[in-house]
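As agreed, record copied across for absentees:
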Amino acid sequence: MEISRKRKHVCAGGDRLMDLPDSLLHTILSNLTAREVVQTCALSRRWRHVWLSAPSLDIDFREFRSAADPGDAAKSHKTMLQQEEFVQFEDFADNLLCRRSTSGASLDTLRLRFECPQTTTHGRWVRRGLKCCPAALDIRHGAGTLPIPLPPVGSGCARRLKKLCLDGLGLPSDFEEQLRSEFRVLEDLEIRNCRMTWVPRIASDTLKNLTVECPQNDGKLLIVAPRLASLHITLVYRNGPSYDITVGEAPSLVEASICLLGNPRFQRHQAGFYSVRPDTILLTALCRLLSSLSNVTNLELIGFKEMMASMNPFPAPPPTVQGPMLQAILDVDNDRLPTFRNLRSLVLDECDIGDKLETLWRFLENYSPMLEKLTLQNCECKKYPRKNEQNHKSKPRTASNIFETRSPACNLMLVEIKYKDAQQISGILSELKIKLPDTTMIRVASPNQNYMLPLLYCS
């Protein structure tokens, strides 16, 4: 009987959408794009003005692209200002943010993505969006276009902002001052593909998580964030020395990762002459960066491969250092690495760990005495000629000599090895069996298998 009454109520024109609580409606709207959010006003009377209080707005130019030309980015960038799609997007963003900023309701998240090499309207969108006092702001300027300037932040507009993501923008010279004066509660900051030429420092007393991806080569950056707990840095190499980043005192820093993309070329061919830049500039910068992370508990190093000379077809002098980059960093005289006494987990991804794992053994023995977990993912073990061998001098005290009689990692409990080809793993396993304690466990992971076995039975 009860079911019959419910069916009768629905058939009589009952609107179930009108009976939903506001919290559920806001959850639904948070999973829609901005264009879809506005379209919900046609669902029922209840929904006619709900979109004005949606907690999240995701304004994306890609929604307005013509389906007939989805992938020709270069053509789209050249003709964007003349295309009807961008005009529609500009009108939509203007009207939406204008009405939203005057509604009086705060935003939890504002995402703004556009792809236009020459536009000043983005500044107006950002200012109107900040009037809604969002807790998270994500601004992305499309890949493949020149960075555009980050518009100034109005006083008091960022009082709730805890997360800021910037992609493809040019940061102003007063960005450090904005962090201190305007972003007073900021905890998460992501900077990707941004021009940071005029930004020598990132300083914040509230920042806890920081991601910096630097596409530029030259310059220095000092990070001063005493409450920083997580740090992720990506350096992109093209020619010569790279961005020099140093982290100030950060006693709360727990995890950090450094990713090196591309191969640095230390000899550059210019107008028929080679301009030689010493590899020690790069090594000293990386050593200084690693030294500032010596208190971390979890460390991930990605792309620390071999030191390479220029790939220019003309003959060039060999690099000063030839061998694994990690080994070269450990050999730097002026800026020796400190001991990572708090390090418990180390991940090496696509790194060169030396012939017979010599570089790895050296780091484990001298720099990470308390390490408990080691992850090796697609690492290489290349062999390089030694300068001492060419001079026929006394045999150097290499890492293989040092660890013939003792284990380099007494506290190591687990070694996790991830690889794509089974041939890559055989040499690593044999060396681990010789050097590590019998109590250490190994987890071997491949696309077809994932198993754990005691080191004693590795073969």
